[in-house]
TrEMBL record:
It catalyses: L-threonine + hydrogencarbonate + ATP = L-threonylcarbamoyladenylate + diphosphate + H2O. This is Threonylcarbamoyl-AMP synthase. Keywords: ATP-binding, Cytoplasm, Nucleotide-binding, Nucleotidyltransferase, Transferase, tRNA processing. Its EC number is 2.7.7.87. It comes from Devosia honganensis.
Amino acid sequence: MTDPDPRTIEDAAALLRAGRLCAFPTETVYGLGADATNAEAVLSIYETKGRPRFNPLIVHCADLAMAERLALFSDPARRLAQAFWPGPLSLVLPLRPGHGLADIVTAGLMTVALRVPDHELALALLRATGRPLAAPSANPSGKLSPTTAAQVRRGFGGKVPVLDGGPCAKGVESTILAIEGERLIQLRAGALSREEIEAATGVAVERAASGAAVSAPGMLLNHYAPEARMRLEATPRPGEAYLAFGAATPFAGPTLNLSESGDLREAARNLFAMIAALDAEGARTIAVAPIPRSGLGEAINDRLQRAAAPRD
Ligand code: TXA
Ligand code: MG
């Protein structure tokens, strides 16, 4: 039986405490939440998303104190948390003995990815539930991440209750960092730019070498697949749809502009919803304008490349 959408934070917290799923908004994308200490509840995240294998999930905390009960923070880790939480930064940290998380949250790893989301409803829900919440993006595996409650409902055919918080402010997922001594290794580009992290820490952020032992195992190439083929850094051709950026090439077909003023924050916020909207127009191919690679452009280009990756 499907639970109805929660009308209040308390309704949503009650579902989660009872081991049910509830999707909720964060500043990045909507998450499909479950009590991270309840193995059955976490298992139903994998089933509902159809995740092909058990990729570890990000665990959301109400604050640094809750996070410190789950993982061991080195000094650099704590400084990063203090600088950027609440915010779109997930830290991969060693599990603390006695953490209480279900093993399948971390897929049996010795580490856990933690973050404190910068969203009033998410924080209120975490406080009301009183438990860490495992929450991957609230989309069926391999599909676009949702940035509105309506997209979550469409993705799961209305079978998952959603706490509606309107559109997400950032629009791309959190940046994932592993910390090794003083070294910072970016496992996933995301809504917090490398430049912001470097400016705050004075430490150069390294890119994870592909195939390295430390990696974000969920970063499968084909992870953001729309139905349409995507042609990147392209000028649109007749019959295609066009995802423009900045001053657009004049085009007669279906067109959406990520940001007419060329603002990367606005583009990140619009990215998944605009790909989904053009996809829904039924075009076989979406031509995507070139997007600069600096700042949030790194995460935007990363998601576009995944959406454009060849598939069967
Ligand atoms: O913005 C976000 O991060 C969103 C919102 C809902 O918070 N969540 C999200 O979660 O994107 P998900 O499950 O779609 O992505 C989790 C990523 C995966 O690529 C996974 O492999 C990586 O985090 N990950 C989780 N735990 C890890 C660990 N212990 N070591 C390395 N990578 C880990
Ligand atoms: Mg995802």
